[in-house]
Design brief:
about 190 residues; mainly alpha; 2 domains; three-stranded antiparallel beta sheet; about 50% helix
Length: about 190
């Protein structure tokens, strides 16, 4: 670890520029982290990594949408929506729909803020219909909620209204089994 610090110091002394100043400032941060009883290895790792740890949800923009088809016992398309801040959201194309129904929406949402889920849904819902096209809209909406939760640092269920109950009672289990049996017989 001392050799890593020495390399950073040596590189900082060889040049007199903004980069040198930033390296010295990083060393100052490492020293402060050491004073606060933090392990020096973790402090160096966080200081030297190129990972954006904080996002600004108001500045998010959708940059791309991709699809991957999982073939484990069937065809399950998963879409991924990428943003300009490196955050991404995942959604499953549902109800036997083709992934092209989701990719068709890409041109409609590129460049928009993914945290405005309701606005984006109003743009997309006209392409959903009652058939399989709805599976594409559903996948994009799932990915948007996933992305929004990652941007704000909370689970998607919290964004959608929070917890309703802490445990499931005996009657809810019986109702669920009854509904399941009725659906199987029809």
């Amino acid at each position: 670890m001392k050799s890593i610090l020495q390399q950073i110091i040596d590189k900082g002394n060889s040049e007199n520029s903004r980069r040198s100043f930033l390296k010295k400032a990083a060393l100052g941060g490492i020293a402060l982290g050491g004073f606060m009883n933090m392990p020096i290895e973790e402090t160096i790792e966080q200081t030297t990594s190129n990972v954006q740890r904080a996002s600004r949800p108001s500045d998010l923009k959708i940059t791309d949408m991709r699809v991957a088809v999982m073939g484990d016992g069937g065809r399950k398309p998963i879409i991924r929506i990428d943003t300009n801040q490196g955050i991404y959201g995942l959604g499953e194309v549902r109800d036997g729909a083709d992934e092209r129904y989701a990719l068709m929406l890409k041109s409609r949402i590129l460049g928009l803020n993914p945290c405005n889920v309701e606005m984006l849904f109003r743009i997309m819902k006209q392409f959903g219909y009652h058939g399989r096209q709805g599976g594409g809209v559903c996948a994009v909406e799932m990915a948007l909620w996933d992305l929004c939760g990652k941007a704000y640092g909370v689970p998607a269920w919290q964004l959608l209204g929070g917890r309703f109950r802490d445990k499931v009672g005996y009657m809810q289990i019986l109702r669920g089994l009854t509904i399941h049996r009725v659906l199987q017989t029809n």
